[in-house]
Amino acid sequence: MRHKVHVILATLLLMLPLFAQAKVPNSIAFYYNDIDSVREIMSFERVVVSPSLISEQQISTLHNADTQVFAYLSIGEFDGQTLPETLKNKSPLVNENWQSYVMDLTAPEWQNHIQEQASQLMEKGFDGLFLDTLDSYTLFAKDEHSRQLQQQALTNILSELNRSKSSPLLIFNRGFEIIDNLNFKPYAVVAESLYHQYEPLANSYQDVKATDTEWLSSKLNTVKQQGIEAIVIDYLPASDRNAQQRAAQQLLEAGFTPYISDGLLYEIGVSTIVPVAKRVLGFYDSQLGGMTTSACHRMMSMPFEYHGYVPECNDIRNTQFDKIDLSRYATIFFWLEDISYQQSPQLQQWINKTIGHRQMLFVNTLPTDNAILQKLGITNNGTLSGQVKITKGQQWLKDYYPASFSQFETHQRWLATDVSVSSLIEVTDETGAQSTLLFKGPWGGAVLSPYPIQSLANGSETWLFDPFRLIDETLALPKIPAADATTESGLRILTSHVDGDGFPSRAWFPGKPYTAEVLLEHVFKKYPLPQTVSVIEGEIGKRGLYPEQSEKMEAIAREIFSLPNIELASHTFSHPFFWDMNKDIQEKQYGDHLPIPGYTLDYHNEIVGSTNYINNTLAPDGKRSKLILWSGRADPDEDILAIAEQANLLNVNGGNTYVVGGGNNYISKDIRNFTQVSPTITWYPSAVHVYAPVLNENLYTNLWTEHHDGYGRAVETFEILGSPRRLKTISIYYHMYSGEYPASLKGLLNVYDWAMKQPTTPLYLSEYAQRARTLYETGLAKTFDGRWQITSSGVRSIRVPNSLGYPDITNIAGWNQGPDGRYLILNHARATVGMSNKPVSGLRLKSANGQLLEWQTNGEKITWSLKSHLPLKMEISGTAGCTVLSGDKLRQSITGKKTVQLSSNKDGVLSGTLRCKLSI
Predict the structure, then answer these.
(1) Residue 416 forms beta bridges with which residues?
(2) Whole-number Å distance between alpha carbons of 75 and 110
(3) Are 519 and 736 within 8 A, CB to CB?
């Protein structure tokens, strides 16, 4: 088995541990392509990768997901372009098939090189090594004596690796000739092409000759008889998943661990599981704006994310279309202008070739290539004239703003030419000519201008129909379990965080206290919720704007930070208003940052310097700042995010989520405008930007110019975003200046009072950020018997649509019914869940207001542990009553049929053992 060495594109962020789950490894993958994300390979319990193409952060993420990671290591050949000086004259020949140097295994220099390479790989965090080219010596060692010398040297090399301090797990690629000579057993032995092989010169897949299959089967069965796992890699392309699954089943029946993939091992293949494609491939044009401001990200990412898929927005200007691996993608969509298609012939060529292989959704415009239109079964038949009216599809448009058909604009006339393409929304002009603006075809769908978004007179935008329905009806994406960052232990997450702006402002209260003092007395001390509070060093520190007031303000900050329910965060040094300097900002109402005398903007100082100030000057013993809360536009690019990542700081703020009932953002039970509901995160290969779930009081007070009690309407936002779809957490987010007026304080307190009455799981913002940043790094696969395998590197909640049925609770802690599905409560990084049409009997955790640390059931016995920031409450279903056998004492009450609530006066980490009588 060979592979080319690539250069890693970027590093992924360092993920925090989830939970460990002890289980016997089974599935395995061999993946030698570039790794932008580990979300696919984490579904496998073991994965072999090219060590140069994976970062230490990615390895850590895989470990959080309970996946073992093996590094490829060539034993018999050096596959670099140039031999190092120390290895010259140690290679008898060049392997022309791979342009690599076949090495003399008896050379001490080569043996030292191997040991050094292995040591470096294990220091990087790998669990083991996959040892390839074990038999390359046969290319030059032709006589028996030479072969014996090489085999003895190989035995010594392998034995030395096994004895090394790092104790790597060793997987051999073949090596049948020397296994009996070893004084240890390898972890596993791999062989290729038992039934299906790849011919690289012809780029074709063929069946293996029966005689070759028989010989290799004999060798592998001998390996198994020695108590060693035998793994077989067979080759079939991922474009035929059914064939791959049949091939894997054939290997399982023969007694071998299977992996079926393409000939270069560049695609995600099939083992004992079948990975589910979760990525959604979207496109934007960078010449018309950046990724985060594109309609691809702003409009479409959230609904795809909600469905459990991972949206990607790719720039048509730099996408290598011939390198796109369709096996990773569930669907494709385009939100482009005519000019973007016209200026990208490579894009149109790729679309033409890809139609029929994946469902596609075209938004705003269609490709300009007539060959593509012909394949789609659509034609452009001139333009519409005069007044245009909707004549079909009114049920799509009910209760939404009417689309604008200006007589001063040209409206194209689109018609279907294929009977398989249907018209969902249709218009007619004053001459009787018809045009379709929403198509549905066997290839997907198309929604055309002026749909689906309209700009309003006040500068905002509105959907002209339901984007969720658009996706559901045109793309018919499979319903899947969705990784979820809104919920913890079956209940909606509640967070509270404060940006430091306005700390030095004086409040309109007796004695003119600082606004921070008002919040200290009326909010931070009053509400025992976990709250995250930040300061701006340039406002309160001695290096800032008010050095003469610094001592007093720092004392207030220390008092706030000393409260047990307060988490520390930085809101930067000088409050930059712009973080993405690639954007051309024409109007700067407040300048670039606070006007601190003599200060030149330094992003490292803004992030790391301000955090160090808090930790060294304001933080009490045992507390440290974990977060940077972005300021201003809160639009950091990947390079800025990397500064926080390297400092091990989580980050939050930004996004566009703001909806209330009434006015221009009117949303009632029947009207849903989601243009101002952002996705949870912006994901980059090297960093993740976590958006604020809901924006702050600025949006409710017209930028703090009127209705200072307006933040009380945030309750409407939380209700809208909680049902009928739970799109966001309850996120109380405001500035220090909310303590300035009695009216603003009253509006804030109303929100807190409402939140305290809701059934929630309160978390610190950092705890939410830890989950949100891993949302896209969640694996999904199907077992051969149809169960779902869910693999998480951080999220604790999975929402299962009601249409999928009721979950088996064998491998999860439990679930709770939400407004839009059943929210699974994970108690392991990897869980296999079957679904049924009726509820499955048994004990299950229905909900808790804390973070689950342990949940194990054994008959009627439950061993549990939870961390709660408020006095603990948990509900257990499937029982008529519970008895505390050990641990923390709990009160018990009946809350429903076959459901009991257990509660305590204590918060923090609680644990114990229960015996709960099963209900019949």
Answers:
(1) 378
(2) 9
(3) yes
Residues 718 and 729: beta-carbon distance below 8 Å: no
- Per-10-residue mean pLDDT of the chain, 920 residues long, equals 38 34 66 96 98 96 97 91 85 79 92 95 97 90 90 95 94 94 96 95 93 97 96 96 96 96 96 97 96 96 98 97 94 97 97 97 97 97 91 92 84 95 96 96 97 86 94 96 98 98 96 97 98 98 96 98 98 93 63 90 97 98 97 95 96 93 45 84 96 95 92 95 96 97 97 98 98 98 96 97 96 97 97 95 96 96 98 97 96 92 97 93
How many Cα neighbours within 13 Å face the side chain of 701? 23
Quickly count: other Cβ atoms within 10 Å of residue 716's Cβ: 16
Both tokens assigned to 483: 């990784």
Reading phi first (left if > 0) and then psi (alpha if -120 to 50, else beta), residue 158 is in alpha
Tokens of 816: 């709770």
Q: What is the helix (H) or strand (E) element at residue 556, kind and residue range?
A: helix 550-562
**DSSP secondary structure, 165-219, as one string:** TT--EEEEES-TTTGGG-SS--SEEEEE-SSEEEETTTTEEEEPPHHHHHHHHHH
Contact predicate 656/298, CB 8 Å:
yes
Q: Which residues contact 112 (CB under 8 A, 6 or more apart)?
A: none
Question: Tokens in use for 90?
Answer: 């140690």
Angle, helices 144-163 vs 108-123, to 10°: value is 30
Please check whether residue 77 is in contact with residue 136, taking contact to mean a CB–CB distance below 8 angstroms: yes
Task: List the alpha helices (DSSP H) in 586-688.
Answer: 603-604, 610-613, 638-646
What tokens were used for 343?
Answer: 């200026």
For 430, the token pair is: 């004053």
What single letter denotes the amino acid at residue 381? Answer: N
pTM: 0.93
CB distance 571 to 737 below 8 Å = no
Q: Which residues contact 252 (CB under 8 A, 6 or more apart)?
A: 258, 272
Q: Where are the alpha helices (DSSP H) in 785-881?
A: none
**Coil, strand or helix at 85:** helix
DSSP 8-state code for residue 12: -
Calpha distance 214→235 (Å, rounded)? 17
Render the burial of 23-48: b for 16+ CB within 10 Å, e for the rest. eebebbbbbbbbbbbbbbbbbbbbbb
CA within 13 Å, CB half, 491: 23
DSSP-derived secondary structure for 705-765: TS-TTGGGGHHHHHHHTTSSS--S-EEEEEEGGGGSSHHHHHHHHHHHHHHHTS-EEE--H
**Token digits of residue 623:** 């507390």
CB atoms within 10 A of CB 265: 25
CA–CA gap between residue 558 and residue 119 (Å, rounded): 47
List, as one string, the DSSP characters of 12-58. Answer: ---PPP----------EEEE-S--S--TTGGGSSEEEE-GGG--HHH
Q: Kind and range of the H or E element at 108?
A: helix 108-123
**Lookup result for tokens 């009434």:** 662
Q: Are strands 566-570 and 531-535 parallel, antiparallel or unpaired?
A: parallel
Residue 155 to residue 46: CA distance in whole angstroms: 25
- Alpha-carbon gap, residue 824 to 101, rounded angstroms: 52
**What's the CA gap between 6 and 269, in Å, rounded?**
20
SS3 at position 407: coil
Contact 256, 194 (CB under 8 A): yes
Residue from 777, 808, 779 nearest 791 by CA:
779
DSSP secondary-structure letter at 612?
H
